[in-house]
Design a protein that fits this description.
single chain, mainly beta, Glutamine Phosphoribosylpyrophosphate, subunit 1, domain 1, globular
Length: 235
């Protein structure tokens, strides 16, 4: 099991990342989503609450350039499902689940982002809590080793996740030009502490120059009540 703080501290630019798992005491479903940025447009953002989820918003609207890939709802809630993604595929998954499709089926209509030459992967997760049971799934849609002619689609599902254990997926392996897409299955990482200590662990170990915003949610598996933390570099 990897230490999340080390994975973050030793990677200058993982891009956007999703962690999903279970708290150390076994009672909470846990998720975190963070965004980073290298350009002024990407860095000019904050997370704001929208309904039971969140939305990205320009910190300084006068400096907003192209909003197409940076303004979206990363988190939405549909009944017993909490959806977390790095783009507007949140809405695609929400609509698909509402129409009776599975998580994987909902994403078949989508592919990686059209931001050549990076072709940023679309990473997504869904947490399902019902009658005291909890499971989750994660997905990555990526170009075929930088070739946009083919979209490679991977879905990973986790039944009855263990206490103190999570999975971590992010868009880029590390900084570069072009940025190399994440490879392999989501990393197994330790989830320790309560919501505040976990939020602190993630935020303080993201690269100080590139980090932009962080969302963390702990959901009580027995009651579905939740606590949320939002941290924005732009205040």
């Amino acid at each position: 099991m990897l230490q999340l703080r080390e994975e973050l501290k030793n990677n200058e630019y993982p891009g956007r990342g999703i962690v999903i798992g279970r708290s150390a005491d076994g009672t909470k479903a846990v998720t975190a989503y963070f965004i980073m940025g290298r350009s002024s447009n990407s860095r000019n953002r904050v997370f704001v609450t929208e309904g039971e989820g969140i939305r990205t918003q320009a910190f300084d609207p006068s400096k907003l350039e192209d909003p197409s890939l940076i303004i979206y709802a990363p988190v939405r809630v549909l009944g017993n499902d909490t959806i977390v993604t790095n783009g507007d595929q949140t809405d695609t998954i929400y609509d698909g689940l509402a129409a009776g499709l599975t998580f994987e089926q909902s994403l078949r209509s989508r592919e990686f982002e059209p931001d050549a030459p990076n072709y940023t992967p679309r990473i997504s997760g869904v947490m399902h809590i019902e009658n005291g049971a909890y499971d989750f799934a994660m997905s990555i849609l990526k170009s075929n080793n930088g070739d946009p002619a083919c979209c490679n689609r991977y879905t990973f599902t986790y039944d009855a996740p263990k206490a103190g254990e999570g999975r971590f997926i992010h868009t880029y392996m590390h900084d570069g030009n072009p940025l190399p897409s994440f490879a392999g299955e989501p990393k197994m990482v330790e989830i320790a502490g309560d919501i505040d200590s976990f939020t602190k662990e993630v935020w303080e170990n993201l690269n100080s120059d590139n980090k932009v915003s962080l969302f963390v949610r702990f959901i009580d598996i027995a009651t579905s009540e939740y606590e949320t933390r939002i941290v924005n570099k732009n205040q």
